[in-house]
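Pasting as-is:
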Amino acid sequence: MASFAPSPADVADIGVTGMAVMGSNLARNFARNGFKVAIHNRSVGKTETVMDNYASEGEFYPSESMADFVASLQKPRVAIIMVKAGKPTDAVIDELASLMEEGDIIVDAGNALFGDTRRREAALREKGLHFVGSGVSGGEEGALNGPSIMPGGTKESYDRLGPMFEKISAHVDGVPCCTHVGADGAGHFVKMVHNGIEYADMQVISEAYDMMSKALGMGASEIGDVFAEWNKGDLESFLIEITAEVLHHTDQTSGKPFVDVILDRAAQKGTGAWTVQTALDLGVPVTGIAEATFARSTSGSTPQREAARGVLKAEAQTLEIADKAQFIDDLQKALYAAKLVSYSQGFDEIAAGAKEYGWDIDLGAMARIWRGGCIIRARFLNRITEAYERDANLPLLLADAYFTEEIAKCIPAWRRIVAFAAASGYPVPVFSSTLSYYDAVRAERLPAALVQAQRDYFGAHTYQRVDTEGTFHVEWTQDRRETNQD
């Protein structure tokens, strides 16, 4: 076991505890940008590895004990936690809090449920400490070379953190991909929704791939060429870019296309489910995100899938595709439309969360800090920022004039793709659910009137009328007369 001499007291600008890949890369990013970085890990071997491999990248101050780690930090102290979510995070917070003083700052930069962040922030506030839940997006590479950073917490804590976080974040057009999101759990809330949008984005991309593979019989590399071409236009984004790279990759063991040797079972760590559960609590329809989350669950439902194979009949049509290029163009437009809906739904959830929890979240700023470093960075995020700059209280992103025109160009192709998939028996949950949402939100009248009538019949849940004010109920089991419930 390595033995580090205690670091000089009150010397490091910032500290990171948790030296797994994300934590060590974040610490290295700070050091590379000229900050003095205290580092610590419960098992000292990981700290030793960082020092052995990366000490030349900047000024690191390693500590074996948490007490030495805290002592090495300049006041007001800033300690970033990069450990497993849940009880391990609580344990580290408790240990740090016992060693810190009023005005010091603890930052949880992992993926935490925003409700936990709100609880932790309130508890530490009582002790005079600042607690910041900060979303960090970009994976291992982003943590090292410039992530998108979404810190919550107090404005006072951001005064201390902001200059450091903004410097190490990704920059687009000279603008840092970091801003103060809002109070207590706002940062982790926005990161949660970011990840939900990511789920929808990845799933609908996979649906486009699946259609090209099954309907057109295209090989992985050829499909990769299509995605590479799409990445030159409106669909330009990190996820489209890496999709092309993955599809061009050949498995070194079998010599087959890499995607063809991967088991078709997509895992998830929970942020997609959190996004959907929270949206249900807030009454916000995030159908694209929900279907993407359930698609991962379906892929992992092995007993159900095995039971269905060879038993459930497709009764599908074999439709001829007369124009391959036109079909691919339709897929591109449908993919763009579905992505726009998914982002719009995500921003609806952020707006609803801000209203529910009293957060002053700048929606345009959220799109701006997602332009670089993060997984869902995309060309059209600039347009989202512009939409909210035109109207900060925009009730629906899709209703902005730019997006109204953009999605209108895609509708015929979008409908053709969904109809083709349904007739052919291809599962396209995000393509189809986002189209259904689009049709629902633009509809003059929905069948919800019948649903409410049913609710009134069996549960006396009442209803409102289109022709007069008030709340009413029909005495269904008696004379069926209508009574005013106000």
